[in-house]
Amino acid sequence: MTQIPFWLDTDTGVDDAFALLAALYLKNAEMVGASAVAGNVTHDKTFRNARNVLAYFGHPEIPVYPGAEQPLEIPLQTAAYIHGNNGLGGVILPDSDAPVETKPAWEAIYEAACAHENFEIVAVGPLTNIAILIQNHPDIKDHVKQIRIMGGVAQGGTWSVCGEFNICVDPHAAEIVFQSGIPIMMFGIDVTMKASVEKEDIEAIEAMTSKAGRLFADCMDLATIANSERFGRTAVAVHDVLPVLSYDYPELFNGVHCGVHVETAGVITSGMTVTDIWSAKKYPEKNAEVMLEVDREAFIRVFKGLLARI
Question: Are 179 and 263 in contact (CB under 8 A)?
Fold first, then answer.
């Protein structure tokens, strides 16, 4: 089977780090490049983290390109309370000695999309880079088969009462992406929270002697505390890993095709991904496959196996 070429756009925090790891070991897809965007922490940190994580896992040759430092129209909000001031829960990784790329992310993605057939994008941070790509290169829809997004929520919210962090950080960018005409596969918190790593799983991972297992345990200390204080949960979600693993394990996930719009003007509802999952005739176009269910036990087995590999 020919591997699907894809680009990983990330605001590298703790779960993004393990999405990068997952991307290195796919059988059905190949990561041809990566880029950074401001989100979990500021852009200077997400850019450095992506480079350092890839180098730490033995792949400094995968280029990481710098992206947007601010959302399109609103001030940047970060999530340092979950990811720590440096984005990796306070864990310090050695600096990558790979060449520092300077080409803007949206230009690098465009060039890669034009150079590969069946090209896809996996976006696990705010969608600023992808929106700029679409604005600068309207023909990108002819070169991207699909965008797999970690973001949004069909019901409820975590960052706000009705919104998820990645979308709320830059709702204007998200609406541009969802209305771009490029098919979307949305892994929102409806599904990612159902794949949470529970306390007993964390303890098993902490007992691992693998490089990745130790890094996970160290990075997740702050996230575990923050989840307990904010949500009263001992579990932590590894949100960004899901869309990456969906290449090799599509059978783990179930969703529904529906229409999605992003609210950009609401005082309370800004960043809400408004879906018509309960009434598919409300929107004229079904622009997204919204994932709602996951086989958690199988996902955790796969994730633990990934951490044990290196």
Answer: no
CA angle 74, 166, 201 (to 5 degrees): 150
Beta bridge partners of 34: 8, 64
- What pLDDT digit, counting tens, does each position of 26-35 carry? 999 999 999 9
User: What are the tens digits of pLDDT across the range 250-263?
Assistant: 999 999 999 999 99
The total of structural domains in the chain comes to 1
Q: Is 239 a catalytic residue?
A: yes
**Residues belonging to the chain:** 310
CATH of the domain at 146: 3.90.245.10
Report yes or no on 221 lying in a domain: no
Sign of CA dihedral 163, 174, 120, 283: positive
Asked whether residue 98 carries a pLDDT value surpassing 90, the answer given is yes
Residue 28 lies in a domain: yes
Catalytic-labelled residue, pool 83, 172, 239, 261: 239
Q: Tens digits of per-residue pLDDT, 157-199?
A: 989 999 999 999 999 999 999 999 999 999 999 999 999 999 9
* Tokens found for residue 281: 């005739």
